[in-house]
Amino acid sequence: MKLAVYGKGGSGKTTLSASLLQFLSYFCNFRVLGIDGDHNLHLANELGATETDMQRGEQGTARDIGNDLEWLRAYFAGNNPRITADLPMIKTTPPGEGSRVLKLSEPAEWRQRYVTVIDGVELIRVGDFTSEDYRKKCYHSKTGAIEIFLKHVWEDSNEAIIVDMSAGKDVFASPLPTLFDGNIYVVKPTRKSLANAVDFLSHAKNFGVSMLVVATDISNCQEVAAIESQLERPVDGIIPHDPFFMQRDSLLLSRPPHVREASFAVLDALYNLTDLLRQLPLHDWDKILTRMLYHHEETAASWAGDKFNEQIQPGFNPFKHVKFEVSV
Prior knowledge:
Layout: E1 2-7, H1 13-26, E2 31-37, H2 43-46, H3 51-55, H4 69-77, E3 102-103, H5 109-114, E4 116-118, E5 121-125, H6 140-152, E6 153-154, E7 159-165, E8 182-187, H7 191-206, E9 212-218, H8 221-231, E10 237-240, H9 243-248, H10 264-277, H11 285-304
Parallel strand pairs: 1-7, 1-8, 2-5, 2-7, 3-6, 8-9, 9-10
Antiparallel strand pairs: 4-5
């Protein structure tokens, strides 16, 4: 499954992303890949990364996909003849014949270039602004790398890719949310967090994006009721207020505790949430492809230019040659 986690800064978005990655890996025996899609770059720290982890031995520090777009595009384009100097890959370009469409688990050059392993969890980062970006680029120029990656790397039924998204509703300026099996909004029982949730969920509804809502830092059922009343919908998951989460952010500890050290209350909440997530529908490959083509045609019509429609190969299904545990 592919999951995106959204929320106001301070809502517990990154903490939940890290907790889910560790929980699925340790307790559910999933292969997991986390993508830090926030320019604050906190996910590695939340996963307990050490300097040794980040250095990766002889490999050296991993590159950030958002700052390595030229290589990323060329790599996944492969020898697709519809991607040329005149028609370069853009973030909505669908895979075509000759493109690299890969399974998450298979050995591949992108893994050596981008992946850092932290206590069994694989991590790649979009990256921060560089000196060349200042006054020239917005962060969307980097998050397009997530779209390219997610179109070309696919997971089996016992694998998960979880993206810790940047805060804010500007994500709806792209079709990125439609690439996920589940979109999760994290809300705390505070006025500011709830106001942001109401606004974000309204935009999601307008854009046809289904959302799951997870309430965090919950001390009692009255807080849950207040959130549900304001959102006019039930929450899908509840993460309790617990000393475990305070320890994860403590300056007194050299690294945050792993989720295996969490209280029974936290583990029970994560079990309930992962049970819900595992009930998400399996990939509908025809629907995924149809949506990709629609968004690329929409992009061609709105700003890229009609010539980019030539990147679509009529009748070609890029997923048929990749053998997944779920049927294509």
